[in-house]
Amino acid sequence: MAQLWGGRFTKETDQMVYDFNASITFDKRLFHQDIEGSIAHVIMLAKQGILTEAEKSSILDGLLGIREDVDAGRLEIDNKCEDIHSFVEANLIERIGEAGKKLHTGRSRNDQVALDMRLYTRLQVIQVDELLKGLLEVILSTMKENLETYMPGFTHLQKAQPITLAHHYGAYFEMFKRDRQRMADIYKRMNYCPLGAGALAGTTYPLDREYTAELMGFYGPTLNSMDSVADRDYLIEFLSALSTVMMHLSRFSEEIIIWNSNEYQFVEIDDAYSTGSSIMPQKKNPDIAELVRGKTGRVYGALVSLLTTMKGIPLAYNKDMQEDKEMAFDAIDTVKDCLVLFTGMLRTMKFKKERMAASAMNGFTNATDAADYLVGKGVPFRDAHGIIGRLVLYCIEKNTSIDALTLEELKSISDKFEEDIYDAVSLKTCVEKRLTTGAPGPEAMKRVIEINKSYLQEDAIYEMMPK
Q1: Annotation marks residue 277 as catalytic
Q2: Which one of 141, 261, 277, 412 is the catalytic residue?
Q3: N or C, which terminus of the chain has less Cβ within 10 Å?
Q4: What's the chain's average pLDDT?
Q5: CATH 1.10.40.30 fits domain 359-446
Q6: Predicted local distance difference test score (pLDDT) of residue 362
Q7: 109-145 and 233-260 are packed helices; what angle lies between their axes, rounded to 10 degrees?
Q8: In DSSP terms, which residues pair with 350 in a beta bridge?
Q9: How confident is the model at residue 2 (pLDDT cuts 50, 70, 90)?
Q10: Which superfamily is assigned to 15-105 in CATH?
């Protein structure tokens, strides 16, 4: 059993205890980060005169060879090792001999794993941000193409006022844009290097932590060695942000599921993102949207699990913190998969525009505009509200809509109605006259689309990318 300790012990660890303690089955995911951190550490040790140039070259050659062999499939990560760190170090010593035993000079597994997890999380933040940007590009494209695709807007799942598909999608653009802003926030706060903190109290070796941080694209070193090894705030923040991403995806999925139903028939989901029924041949199920909605709880679970793990841990490192990985890895994978599939589903989805417009017409979504029409004729709004309420009740009894009534019928409710009422309550008018920033009118939407287009063309949100 390859391990980095044992001199103080007089007998072997019980196999079940060893297996329970080991993390290689899941932390092998950190292999590339472990190699990256070790390379930077060795370069710094040589710069400080702690290693000779010959030792540095030998160790670097060994590390690069291990990475190359694992990537090529010539070397398999051995699950008999306790963790990924012991796997790398054991292989290094086997390859280059005594010089390999100096790799761990000036560091502990505590700051080593803190570094690996931070490097890994930083990469995932960047990748999730890129996937969010891809989703935003699809949403913006749909917005551009549907400035005059009329549909009902809802409150309480009741038809409320007419809007456009561009406007509805624009709401999700804002949500996912905020998600990207959270990614940038997390990156900026977490991008400090814990390597050199040692087990908890630093080291007596003359390390250059600023140089190590620079080599790996960090803004600088962390400033307290105890916090360096005990901090998982950045991962909690990331899981919280991922939970919000999933909440937004789940809300959007719920709407697509509703729009796809027989009762609504607003959308046609592409065959590539649907499944059928084993018994009912007519079925075309929105499984991707349903799975995205369902997997949201899985990501929430990872966040709550880590919060619960961390809430009672005294300073500094404790073995409990090994529990930061498995569910975090699963949550990250889940969110990335959901973003890829959801983006593909949106990109290929077709809209039944006539059905959407008819639904807006049949739900009295123009009732507010009818009330505003009466206000324009000198009727106080509260009275206008009551008049239109009676008008809607009349329409319900007659199974018709406001714009389908004759002028005579309208005048029987209020003598303020004139021929121009029909234009005032048309879907086109109801939407187009809403021109304030953030409203669904096409001119207002065009301004927002230009703002969003410029936003997506901005440079990378990260001030420093890893070299």
Answers
A1: yes
A2: 277
A3: C
A4: 92
A5: yes
A6: 83
A7: 30
A8: 268
A9: low
A10: Fumarase/aspartase (N-terminal domain) (1.10.275.10)
